[in-house]
Amino acid sequence: MQLSTKYDPSPVEAKWYQHWMEAGYFHSTPNPEKEPYCIVIPPPNVTGVLHMGHMLNNTIQDILVRRARMQGKEACWVPGTDHASIATEAKVVAMLRERGIKKSDLTREQFLEYAWEWRNKYGGIILQQLKKLGASCDWDRTTFTMDPAYYEAVIDVFIDLHKKGNIYRGLRMVNWDPAGKTALSDDEVIHKEVASKLYYIKYPIAGSDNEFVVIATVRPETIMADSAICVNPNDQRYTHLKGKKVTIPLIDREIPIIEDDYVAMDFGTGCLKVTPAHDMNDNELGKKHNLPVIDILNEDGTLNADAKIFVGEDRFIARKKIAKELEAKGFLQKAEDYTSTVGFSERTDAVIEPRLSLQWFLKMKEITVPAHHNVMNDYIQLIPPKFKNTYNHWMSNVRDWCISRQLWWGHRIPAWYDADGHYVVAKTHGEALELYRKDKPDSKTSSLTQDSDVMDTWFSSWLWPMAVFDTTIFHDGNKGNADLNYYYPTNDLVTAPEILFFWVARMIIAGYEYRGDKPFSNVYLTGIVRDDLGRKMSKSLGNSPDPLDLISQYGADGVRAGMLFSSPAGNDLLYSEKLVEQGRNFSNKIWNAFRLVHGWQVDEKLEQSEDNITAVSWFEERMTISINELEDHFSKFRISDALHAAYKLIWTDFCSWYLEMVKPDFEKPVDKITYNQTVGFFKTLLRTLHPFMPFITEELWSHLRDKSDADCIIVAPWPPAKPSTVKFIEESERAFLVIKEIRDFRNKKGISPKETLTLHCSENPFPYFGGIVRKLTNINEFQVSNDKPEGSTLMAGTMEFIVPLAVAIDVEKELESIDRELTYLRGFLETVDKKLSNEKFVSSAPAKVIETERKKKADAEAKIGVLEQSREKLRIKN
Question: 182-353 maps to which CATH number?
């Protein structure tokens, strides 16, 4: 079989993914003989395409599910997409605009036909892209939150919670998105620091010719909606104004001056304009003082007729025009630069408007209790645990959830109204009419109108871990189908910290409400992928590569490994293309290791040498230790560390050392035992690496497997942890140090690797590795005696070796070389001493780290001592 010198991932990836799909390796059904392992995918928006965050998140999920599959568990990874009400409706409106169609010219049914057309064309793109990454999802279980059965489940939950008294309709201040023309929950508002202006506006005192109060505001466009001016009753500056009124500039409407200790005397001027229709806090103050509510904004953020002036203007254009008008008419005292915190829509990035609106809400105080308690007691683990503090803060201060959205795309609210606004909640018009007639037996109404709003997208996705298996469990008395009872609760959830409250907390709430149990055991929170300047990767900044381009250039395995080389849980990943280059290089390293072994000639009559026996025994120890480390990392969700352990085992221990130890001389054969053991090691290494790099491992498995092995590595057994021994480890480390020192010595002295050398030491340091050291360094013999010959001194840890030289030494050059090394070592020793003398470091660092630093100190001191002796001898000789 001819093997290319360079690994080409493209044909390998296409071939094996198709094979896995056709063989049904991704599909899962309940199996009472097996332990279930289940992950539900965080459903990406149907508007989405693969980005770097998806790459990281789904790579980690795939690693976990592939490993579980190899462990013999019934592994099930459920994929799907979220309908994303706001984002999708915006996409459809944009599509219609390109066709010359306005949403306002369409009926709801016509618009939804276009929405489904858009979803059917674009909605599955991201799932197809995930296949390129190697995602081993059970595609037969693909779920969409607007699937008919799922849709019905969402309606059932709304009706059930309304019956329980948990859902209510009320007129309340909400976060309004003028671009999406819909209400948002508090969690869908992103707060940003914005540079703006603080305007100091003079409000004339009614009935006075020259007296006024000054109000500081960042929103002069809302002065027309003012209902009062409020001062603190303890503020002596304004006691004379009690009971008086002021005139609103530009519109000459009088409003009262009221008193309330809510006003901070030391902020601004100590006078507060109260605008109940356009500020959450002002609304509460308005209720307390029975103030009128004057709404001057339309749904799209333009000024309405109640504003009296600049009607139809956008709010921000009106702000500038009103500021100019105030200045021109002498009402603007001054304007100064000011930084304020402004809320933005998480979906459209529009500036949020507080708005008084009739909406549907879910009561959160009681329903959240189990979800709060079971995260804080670690029944559900957040990884890393630092997120428990933020989770606790949010759950302790939870507010009722505004669940209605003024959109057409989504799950329509099952409320039905008569002409007077009286409503009933029911699944169908017929059921609604029946309920209505029971409620109002004297009414002759035969037709009810359904609420035009839809539910918040998260109100459907909070059911995800249950509804992907069984959409009928939200009825009273339903115990769940076989799938739900087998896979629920799921095992691990992998998601981003920014949706800890949008989605994760709400899934936990729903899980306890409808199953009485957690939806998952562990929540692994990934970091944000950032560029080398620390900026979050985004298309708008132009700093995010196309993941599919990366896969095309470096291979899916290279990209997967590269993303994980620097991604500890909960900490941001600083992406660099060098990482995926490193991943690709790793693929090539493994490929070339296979080519090397594959090219060996085997002599079945040849006996296994002692050196090969030692090499094999050493690598067995080294591999066992590494697999145990790997298991420990997985148990603690240190996925990046697990990859590093596998990487070091393969690149350094196997390729750089083991294969060099057992590699036969040029055109010489290898014995059958060593060859078989090497192939066995190679197959074990491929199994440890498969979850991280599935394609190349499957390809090489197909070349290395024999009849007793699994047909495909995807279902080969995961290498188990087992007790380890360290018979050869300490000596091997010493041997590798000597080998490196000799190779470095040859480079420094310009001595060819082909030229044999002699190595002197006071005692035999290598009872097992002597032959290996000789082979890898071209040492012809070890001289063991207490008599030190003249020559160059090498150090391996604290052990001293001398290379006697047959040729004359250039003493001056040798002294210069020693002095340079002494300068470096003394500086290094100083750094280590500083660390070890730092009480904070010594008290907080792990014992293993302290031990490593002390070993560094001992080695450096030993080397300095030997070098000083060598320098002294050379000076005497000189």
Answer: 3.90.740.10
